[in-house]
Amino acid sequence: MKNLSNNVQLIGNLGNTPELKEFESGKKMVNFSLATTDYYVNQQGQKVNDTQWHKVVAWGKSAEFINNYVDKGNRVAVSGKLVHRSYTDKDNQTRYITEVVLNEILMLTPKVEAEAA
Length: 117
What we know:
With about 120 residues, the chain is mainly β. The chain is built from 2 helices and 6 strands, in the order ββββαββα. It has one domain (about 1-115): CATH 2.40.50.140. Helix content is about 15%, strand content about 55%. It has a 5-stranded mixed beta barrel. The N and C termini lie far apart (about 40 Å).
């Protein structure tokens, strides 16, 4: 049950082309946004889309894979842990970020569709 304590699983579409960053140490990181959409029926009986955006960060071999094979609009399943952090911006304001640090990714867009995009 240890692995269930902080585990996030999402299926959605990439909202942007993943950005690869390589650090002086040789570590590689990629980040991208993932859109998940849920549906509900409002009080007027209309179907409403509820899209949520999630920041996803991947490191190492996962970052390289994503950089090489995943693109904006692709449908993927991701699994990882939820991380909260803060930083101070150039205006001395504290900013808070919640992101998913990726453990696994599964491509759901068929290869033919991904190549056509």
